[in-house]
Amino acid sequence: MMRNVKIYPAEGTWVVRANGAVIGESNAALELIQRDFPFVIYFPREDIAAAVLEPSDRALICDDRGAGEFYHLSSPEGLLLNAAYSLTAPSEAAAQVQGYLAFDAGKVTVERV
């Protein structure tokens, strides 16, 4: 449903840290708002260190955003399971974030700097 997803440019510079280590930084991130959930920052894939991403067997399926895949993240403290995800078959409303990466805020830190 298109009305349930809204996407805006995320103003400023955004970073993502896994156990304190910066794994990505972007001036081209997007903010996705879905219904009454907290907003999620999506990073262009090229702004995230590819070496920290390990494919997961877990699939992402969301009625509003579409389908995608999860990734584990390597960090100085060990592997963070299913801590990142990407939409590989987004809904029409979420098409703008296809190929971008988002992160589980309970497992990593995403912040504007």
Automatic annotation (TrEMBL):
Species name: Roseinatronobacter alkalisoli
Residue ranges annotated for the DUF427 domain, each copy included: 15-105
Name of the protein described by the UniProt record: DUF427 domain-containing protein
